[in-house]
Structure prediction request, 635 residues.
Amino acid sequence: MFTGKGYFIASLPDAIEDVTALADLASLAGLGHLILKVAEGADELDNEANILTSKAISVLNEAGIVPIGWAPIYGQKVDLTSQANRVAAAVKHYGVKALVLRAMDLPGQRWGARPAAQFMKALQTALESEGVQDTLLALNSYGDMVNNSDFPYAEFMAVCHVALPEVDWALKSTNNPIQALQDAYNAYFSRFPNKDFVPSANITRQHLMVAGKDFTWEPRTGHINMFLNQADAMDYMGVSFWNWESAREMRNLWDAVARFPFDLVIPSLSESQGMGGGGTPAAMISDINVDDDGQATVYVGSEGYQQGVYENDTEGLTIFTRNGLTFAWTPRQDKTSTAYAQWLPKVTTTGEYVLEAYIPGVNATTRKARYHIHGVVGQDSTMVIELNQLSYSDVWARVGIFELDGGHPYSGMVSLNNLTVGEDTANAKVAFGPFRWRKLVRQAGIPEGYADGFDSPVGTEEERRSDQMWPGAWMDANPFLNLYELGYHTGTDHNLNSPRFDSDKGAPAYSIADGVVTYSGRAFNRDGSPSGFGTLVVIKHDPYLTDTGETIVAYSRYAHMKDLVPQKGERVKRGDRVGTIWNVGTGAHHLHFDISLSGILETHPGHWPGTRKKEVEKHYVDPAAFIRANRPRVR
Prediction:
């Protein structure tokens, strides 16, 4: 919903007269969503705003730009239930699929924990009464979490799916959008790690008091670029700005946002294997024999699919259709499962298979769906895999790769019920949709789309093929977890002093495996200051299947280099040059190199735990030991 760039529109009648021009301007600016006001506390919009909003939502949908509703809500002086009822009615009236709650936490309108909990409960009831209980809810709050600790974030976020905080660097002493964004993310992630995060930058003029004097602040284009660059580097699904009117008034800001290529590739139904054009399945008849062409798909209601209840007096699955596909859903249960579904293919050949579930964009809100896989080699009972359905929307989600026993009577059968364990999503639903099996295609024993192993980042081609770690005369001057003046070392420092001292100066550094570059450029600390890493490259490597059958995704980081070769988003192969070893950000020439299995380097390319040893151990592994244990099978 909140993908790409977007704007809040404070007042549609003040923003634009022709809603057709609204869609045209949004398209030219490369926007993915617009957030339109749909209610005012307990009051509906006036007639002019109502007409314009309805027209705007229609033309935005036609243009492929997602319309999202927003409403100010008040903790005092306005009846909570009346506000909840009005907001829910507006969602139904305008047909928006997502709603931003803009909590007005101003003097005389403060929110407390009890009113917040009461309002959210009333809103859930009202949304259900209107038949729009699947609306995606987001919280937009004033101020930052650190300096606004009395605000009832927990009560709102217990129900909201998305955190959409207002990021306001005018209120920061450093006037630094990077620091403001990182502070906001860290504060929310520390308390709500399972919620999506979409920052909203305040780009309005503000009248501040500085050193006892009135001061008018307004953002610069440099601020916009810093904010967007950092948001892009931290891989957020989208960003928003408050607001459209200010950006159109200060055209330099509008142009800066429009020029920035904050583009995400969102898989569509037509891009998913097993689907025909336009998101319609090529055939709604289940092809359940995997052995024919190496893959099979079982659809809801077709051959190979069964569903039912465990007790005759319990509620069954509710059938619905979406984009030409049939699905089912049922409320989750926390003690005993009451309903189930099964998908049974014909697997008669023992081998490795990719198992994938198609997750619809609605009625799939559980984070704890438990898929039971039957007939896995070496398993006496079913193998249970937990999947966060809320993370997917109208796409295939990989459940896992399993070696299935072709001689097992139920080989490859998948069962799913509505029992979820440790669920923290309010009113979660479990969705049941198409399921498919694909036999792995291996080259030299490597699954298709997987990394074939890892090499050293330094050394000649012949040296990198050897088992020596590190190769040739290369040495590690600062081993993993070594405690020195900057803290515990996260990786290795590669030096070469043969045939002469400082021979590593100007030597190439190489990608250790196939993958995609997630960062390339100057590194920054979490506070926005330049990092001692100087310039660096981070690569997210393709999944790797270990000898024990575990699938891992590794990130590698190469720092202090110059002449960086790959750019963000480019694919690299094992052995591709990534840069030149230098001393950018440091004194002595060397390559700082580390490996993370946690994904921290994708969100924080300049991450440095310092003296926090446990954090180093949490996010990083010994590079020499890791590479030594996971060498390419073919060298």
The chain has three domains: 4-263, 282-440, 461-629.
